[in-house]
Every structure is written in C-alpha cells, then in structure tokens.
From TrEMBL:
Taxon lineage: Eukaryota, Viridiplantae, Streptophyta, Embryophyta, Tracheophyta
Keyword tags: Golgi apparatus, GPI-anchor biosynthesis, Membrane, Signal, Transmembrane, Transmembrane helix
Membrane topology classification: Multi-pass membrane protein
Species name: Acacia crassicarpa (northern wattle)
Protein name, UniProt field: Post-GPI attachment to proteins factor 3
Top-level taxon: Eukaryota
Places the protein is found: Endomembrane system; Golgi apparatus membrane
One of the GO biological process terms: GPI anchor biosynthetic process
Transmembrane segments: 123-145, 157-180, 192-210, 222-242, 248-267, 279-295, 307-325
GO cellular component: endoplasmic reticulum membrane; Golgi membrane
Length: 341
C-alpha cells in the first residue's frame, strides 16, 4: 500500500519529469544558472521583471487556507516564463555571433515574442484559418437560405445542412484555441487546443462517412455516429485527466485524418461528383501539408517554423473546401427540386 511518503516521493518525482522536458537548450548549465539567478534576483542581464518581486514563504502545498494567494502563484509563474525567455534570448544571441546553430528549449525552438505572443506566426495563421471558416460558413448560409429554392416551411433541400453548421462551429472553436495555445503555452491551453482538435477530427470523420454513404435517415445517422463519438469522448477524457500521451494522441489524430481523406477521395471518384476536382485538390494538398509536421526545422528569423507554415497552408485549402461544400449543396438541391416536380 502506498503510504504518505511514497505518495510525496511520487509527486516530487513526477513534477521533476515535467520540469525536465529534456531539450538540448535547457540542459545547458549556462542557461540553468542564468534562470536560477534570475528567479532569485528578478533580473536577467540588464533586464529586471516586476513579476519576480514576491514576498512570503513558499506555501504551494498544504490546506487551501494556508496556500499562497492565486495572484502570487501567477506572478511566480510569469517570473519563471520571463526568466526562461530572456536567458534563452541572450544565449542564442551569443551563439549566433559565434555561428552556432539554434537548439530547442523545453521542447520548443527559440521563438521571438511579439506583444507577449510566444509563436506569433502560428497565432496569426490560426486567426486567419478561423476567419476563412467564418467566411465559408456565412457564404454557405447565404447560398442556402437566400439564393436557392426552399421547401415548404422554409427548409433547404440540402439534407446535410445541420451537419455542416456543426462542422463550422467546431472548426472555429478549434482555431480559436489554437491561437490561444500558440500565444501562451501552458498546461490548460495545451489541453484545450488538443481536445478541440480531436473533437473536430472525430466529427469530420463522422461527417465524411454520413455524406459519402448518403446516410439521410436520422436513426441510421445516430447508429453510425454513436461508437465514434464514444471513442472520441473517451480519448478526450484520457488525454485531459489520465495522461497526455503525445505519441498515442498523434496516432489517433493521423488515423482519423487519413481515414477521412481516403473516404472523400474514393467517394469523389466513385460518385462522379461534379466538383470532385476540388475534393481531390484538398485531399492531395492536405496530405502534402501534413508532411510539414514531420519536417521540423528551426524558425526563420525566430518566427516562421514548419508548424506555422503548416497552419498557413490550411488557409487557402479552407476556401476551396467551403467552395466544395457550397457546390455540393447546389448539386443536391437541384436533384431535390427535380424530384419534387
Ligand atoms: Zn498549431
């Protein structure tokens, strides 16, 4: 049985694992000394940080009424983040003068902060992705309700309307948290970003199956989605409350992404969809863009890395994708109107 001491030991041990992060940059003793000194004095080189000036004892453990106030915990956390950043900047600058190559710190490349944003390029591209989805969604909405004929009761002929509305909301939610996460990487923002990406990927896989197999009956839709929703929900609970296993999460995400790309590509050919070239273009370019995630290079000018480029490529693809969705709505509506006559 675990007694109090082994629990305490495990807690300290696991905390150190999280703190280590094992990158070449933070293993450098020069960097470690700089951060340690900075956290004690509040200054890195000639820069000093107001957030490092806190008083009181370290009371992060124990009963809640004995713990230090939340704002002090935040200040300490800000202090550590500032110290790590400016120590890294100084060391990297010195290295650049001696023609050294950049290395990772705590699992991340040395990015240049802009307005306090950790990865400004990824933030900008995430916001543009969000805007592209919003634009696509609004144009889809206008086409359906204002430009095309409606059934009695003002309902569109297109049977997949509500599915695409949910898709738009999940996509915008995903890019919102992506922008937040790339602005400031902490445990909470990371989990929110990962969870919303998993939710979107899982949902779009369901959507790909329902659309490509022409599932229009509500009961069949529920039967097909239920096991997938159960799997995605379990996976989200797993990464949030049990263990954020990056390798396993990557496998789940790539698995769901590749499956839906294959479904769309095959369906485009089999169904001889009038806009299948748009499908194929998105599938082909989307597959190529995924390679950017595998080819990891240090950020150009401290700003543009492979991950940011990957986020950039999805912006034009989002435009083409929504254009395909509008084409599909027109195609199905013209069929529906013909049948109704
Ligand atoms: Zn990202």
């Amino acid at each position: 049985m675990l007694d109090r001491y082994s629990i305490a030991f495990l807690l300290i041990f696991s905390w150190h694992i999280v703190e280590l992060n094992a990158s070449a940059g933070d293993a450098n003793p020069h960097y470690r000394d700089c951060v340690k000194q900075c956290e004690e004095t509040g200054c890195a080189g000639h820069r000093c940080f107001a957030n490092c000036k806190f008083s009181g004892d370290d009371l992060t453990h124990g009963p809640w009424y004995k713990q230090e106030p939340l704002y002090l915990q935040w200040k300490k956390w800000d202090c550590q983040s500032d110290c790590r950043y400016f120590c890294m900047v100084d060391i990297e600058k010195e290295k650049e003068l001696n023609n050294g190559v950049p290395v990772k710190y705590h699992g991340k490349w040395p990015f240049r902060r802009i307005y306090g944003m950790q990865e400004p390029a990824s933030v900008a591209f995430s916001v543009l992705n969000l805007a592209a989805h919003f634009h696509g969604w609004v144009s889809f909405f206008i086409l359906l309700y204002y430009k095309m004929p409606l059934k009695d009761g003002k309902k569109p002929y297109y049977e997949y309307v509500n599915l695409w509305h949910t898709y738009a909301l999940l996509s915008m939610n995903c890019w919102f948290w992506s922008a937040v996460f790339h602005s400031r990487d902490v445990d909470l923002t990371e989990k929110l970003d990962y969870s919303s990406a998993v939710a979107l990927l899982g949902y779009s896989l369901i959507l790909a199956i329902l659309r490509s197999f022409n599932v229009r009956d509500e009961a069949t839709r529920v039967m097909i989605s239920a096991p997938l929703i159960a799997f995605v929900a379990t996976h989200i609970l797993f990464i949030n409350f049990y263990k954020l296993d990056y390798g396993w999460n990557m496998k789940v995400c790539v698995g769901m992404a590749v499956t839906q790309l294959i479904i769309w590509a095959v369906w485009g050919g089999v169904s001889r969809h009038p806009s299948r070239w748009k499908l194929w273009l998105v599938v082909f370019a989307g597959g190529l863009a995924m390679l950017l995630e595998l080819y990891d290079f240090p950020p150009y000018e401290g700003l543009l890395d492979a991950h940011a480029l990957w986020h950039a490529t999805t912006i034009p693809l989002t435009y083409i994708w929504w254009s395909f969705i509008r084409d599909d709505a027109e195609f199905r509506t013209s069929n529906g109107v013909k049948k109704a006559k």
